[in-house]
């Protein structure tokens, strides 16, 4: 079983806990920050846990709670239209430039 709604997926790969993810949106959308196991559940339309929720302002910033493989999903479930999104990972070490990710 898969979702009846479309979504934009960003694979953040391995990230350190405490890293901030900044998501910029063009419209109200749902934003879900999930670890790899929960993303697998999400892909199969199963119950999953995530950080985030309905993003009514942009950008929103979410903090990765623990080191591991992380994913961000932006979807329009329950919202009209389509939101454009972009994502930036702000590293813990301020001397490094921010990593940018494109949708998968």
Automatic annotation (TrEMBL):
Pfam families: DUF1883
Domain DUF1883: 5-91
Alphabetical list of SUPFAM superfamilies matching this protein: Atu1913-like
Coiled coil: none
Domain of life: Bacteria
Name of the protein in question: DUF1883 domain-containing protein
Annotated organism of origin: Shinella curvata
């Amino acid at each position: 079983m898969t979702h009846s709604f479309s979504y934009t997926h960003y694979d953040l790969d391995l990230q350190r806990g405490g890293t901030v993810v900044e998501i910029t949106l063009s419209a109200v959308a749902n934003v879900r920050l999930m670890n790899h196991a929960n993303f697998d559940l999400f892909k199969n339309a199963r119950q999953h846990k995530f950080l985030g929720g309905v993003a009514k302002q942009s950008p929103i910033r979410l903090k990765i709670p623990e080191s591991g493989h992380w994913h961000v999903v932006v979807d329009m479930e329950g919202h009209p239209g389509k939101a454009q999104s972009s994502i930036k990972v702000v590293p813990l070490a301020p001397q490094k430039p921010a990593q940018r990710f494109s949708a998968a």
